[in-house]
Design brief:
CATH class of the largest domain: Alpha Beta
Mean pLDDT: 88
Shape: elongated
Order of helices and strands: HHEHEHEHEEEHEHEHEHEEEHEHHH
Oligomer: single chain
CATH superfamily of the largest domain: Periplasmic binding protein-like II
Helix content: 40-55%
Number of domains: 2
CATH topology of the largest domain: D-Maltodextrin-Binding Protein, domain 2
Length: about 350
């Protein structure tokens, strides 16, 4: 995956903000601030007693190009706090990552969909038990060129374009679209991820009714979501689908369509994802952790760190953070999975 985000510099700044938060002073409230500082120091000391200050070891993640940028930011921030732990993040797609994960080659798999039954069986055959940990939310976004007059599309209309049996080749052939007549003859050019992508599986399942159900004449961009943005920005008739993060960093290049899942047109925004109205293309993003990985204190602490700082991590990576309810649920899940 290619990304234009400057993770290192921004993550460093964010890391400093996590350490220095609430440090501004006001002389008139010095007594109150002293009390607050003492309380914070006490809390920090208690936390230090629970977590080894000199964690060491390594954590190896692979998988989704959607979740990869989030895990890269989490890894950089975590290693600033725990320099004795090396966290590496690779990208081979959700499916490609599960192949490695189920062989025991990685500690965790970044995934933009839930694990499939055959992948569970593969993991179990190799003695690997795992579960998903939600680390962020996503508004899977259907993109068009900025000069495309369309503003909203229904799931049924998207299926007319993307389904395996689709025959439409121009925008005017799609039934019910709100476009000017003179745009109807514009040819449609389609761009989407490869078959190892969890985004591919999710989109085809939701829009076309079955994972892998898609017309064969679309252009596969593999795990390089930026390639879809580039192609769509240069072709008035182009369309594609990408994770929310890639849409957000390309607002000056492409247009994200509103989605009508049956209750009216809803825009792809963080607020609409968290309130559940961006349906059915809103989704959770995961990192799958193995039981062996969660037997290591450095891995347990990494996932707790990831969840507790999910909002800041997501803001850097362009995704949607966790709700308070999700945060509580995921911390409890890590505790259960690790036996702590």
């Amino acid at each position: 995956m290619t990304s234009t985000r400057k993770f290192g510099a921004v993550a460093c700044a964010l890391g400093m903000s996590l350490v220095l938060a609430a440090c501004s002073s006001d002389s008139s409230d010095s007594a109150e601030e002293t009390t607050a500082a003492t309380t914070e120091e006490t809390a920090a000391e208690e936390a230090a007693e629970e977590v080894p200050t000199e964690l060491t070891g390594s954590i190896n993640l692979d998988g989704s190009s959607t979740v990869g940028p989030l895990s890269e930011v989490a890894a950089e921030l975590f290693m600033q706090e725990y320099p004795g732990v090396q966290v590496t993040v690779a990208v081979s797609g959700t499916g490609g990552g599960f192949e490695k994960f189920c062989k025991g080659e990685t500690d965790g798999n970044n995934a933009s969909r839930e694990i499939k039954d055959e992948e569970v069986a593969n993991c179990e055959a190799n003695g690997i038990a795992s579960d998903n940990i939600t680390v962020a939310n996503d508004a899977l976004t259907i993109l068009v060129n900025q000069d495309n007059p369309l503003q909203c599309i229904t799931i049924e209309q998207a299926n007319q374009i993307w389904g395996a049996d689709a025959t439409v080749s121009t925008w005017g052939e799609v039934e019910g679209l709100d476009i000017p007549a003179d745009f109807g003859d514009t040819s449609i050019a389609l761009y989407g991820p490869g078959t190892d992508s969890g985004t591919f599986d999710f989109f085809t399942d939701i829009v076309n009714g079955e994972e892998g159900n898609i017309r064969i004449d679309y252009t596969s961009i593999g795990e390089d979501d930026n390639a879809a943005v580039t192609a769509i920005s240069g072709d008035v008739g182009a369309m594609g689908f990408v994770p929310f993060a890639f849409y957000q960093e390309s607002l000056d290049l492409v247009k994200g369509l509103e989605i009508d899942g049956g209750d009216g047109c809803i825009a792809p925004t963080s607020e609409n994802v968290l309130n559940g109205s961006y349906s059915p293309l809103g989704r959770e993003l995961y990192v799958y952790a193995s039981d062996a990985a969660l037997s290591k204190p450095e891995t347990v602490e990494f996932f707790n760190f990831y969840i507790n700082n999910a909002a800041d991590i997501a803001s850097v990576a362009g995704a949607v953070g966790l709700s308070p309810e999700q945060t509580e649920e995921q911390l409890a899940k890590v505790a259960t999975l690790s036996g702590s």
